[in-house]
# Entry
Amino acid sequence: MKKYLVLILSVLFVLSACTDDGGVEEAAEESTDVAGEETSTEVINMSLLSTPNSLDPHAANDQPSNHVNVNIYERLVEFTPELNLEPGLAESYEQIDDTTWEFIIREGVEFHDGEELNAEAVKVNLDRLRDEDVGSPVAFLFELIEEVEVVDDYVLHIETSSPFAALPSHLAHTAGSIISPAVIEEDYEQDELLTAVNLNPVGTGPFQFEEISEGDYVTLVKNPQYWGEEAESDTFTFNAVPEDSTRIAELQTGHADLIFPLDPNDFEQIDSGEGTSVNETESVRMEYVGFNTEQEPFDDPVVRQAIAQAIDKEDIINIMLEGKAIVADTLLAPAVFGHSEDIEGIEYDLEAAKKLLEENGYSDGFSAEITVQDRTAADIATYIQEQLRELNIELEIYQIDPGAYTDYVGSGNHDMFIGGWGTVTLDADYGLYPLFHSSSIGNSGNRSRYANDEVDALLEDARTEIEEGQRLELYEEAQEIILEEAPIIPIYHPSLLTGMNDDIEGYSQHPASFHFLSEVGK
# Structure
């Protein structure tokens, strides 16, 4: 990339004052190059709910982290916006027998610190992900990998303990991001693992890390040595702005170029506003109401089933979400392998819900708390609160900061919660195993703390089944049990809404909820 000698002009607008939420506002800096010609440093500001929980992709599996990390790191395999798999840092890959995959690593790629990408660097990453001493919360995605063998400098074999059809999809997950081996070595030297990479995130992506102010903002800058097409913008800053109204105000005043998420109730205001519009994309996410199945009375499936019967999903979508979603009858979005139209969930029937509780000794009702992290979830919780009063259930809404939400519900401190899950691999293994297998209880995904031996066995069998039709049958059987026992209530598959200024070009929302930002400019 051409290097410029930046000279500050007499008129230079750099907005570095903090917003109400501490986010940093910046404007494009005018400068002159060595030939005396005016140039500009293009700065894009995006307002999100919070800063990442970790800049180490092997240590985090939450949206705020993934939004940033997908731009710093890359993966062997990538999903296109059309949800097709394509080679990434692997130039090509193929399955050479039932349990062996061969990856040809792309040559001429460097990490941001100058380290070379090769087969050994990839092996270091995959070994770290599976290292029990490291304790990665996303290790479950790769636990069927038995051995990673370096064949030569740019050829890698991945051996699985049994056939694993979903391996390429799992490698395309943000958890499969490839980190500089030098920083991984540094991490192993720390007293506490999974810390060094967070402080010094080094990948191969189109952007590289510049700075972070915890709870405030993260700044990335263009990678001048990027192996592919260089990023359109010089600097990308992600500001933490939890309040919807503040994000909207920042967009309308030009202090933010992009805001996410946008509440459906604010769609018209932004889409018809002067100088602003909304990018709307179908998603592979499922939003749901979850229970802590280890807490009374939610350890009783009857209670969970009755609450499921008391929630009108159509009402939520039409009244609370302005129609910007589709009903989630099952646990997987239609685009995900394993989705089935033949599965029947629990239908809305308020009178049947009352009768079910009366027949099982819950006619007097009880009180509980439901945890949410944003305005949309709080609005839905308010609706559910009103519905459950019909069952003599008093629900208290507890809204928690998005940065603390994952740890809170992952630790089992909650009664009920409103959560979401994006099946970003487009395979039922990732849509079901982390949410419902007993080994995933906690931050890995199973925040309902659900455990069922039969479901565990079905999900394990489906992972290793080669025949596609049999895999579908196993997933269908598992989903029928889960929906009947109702550890969660699938509510809807949302449209992803991003508010944007009209001068932004090249932005498109990925259905997996990620923001790949290298093509975004003004």
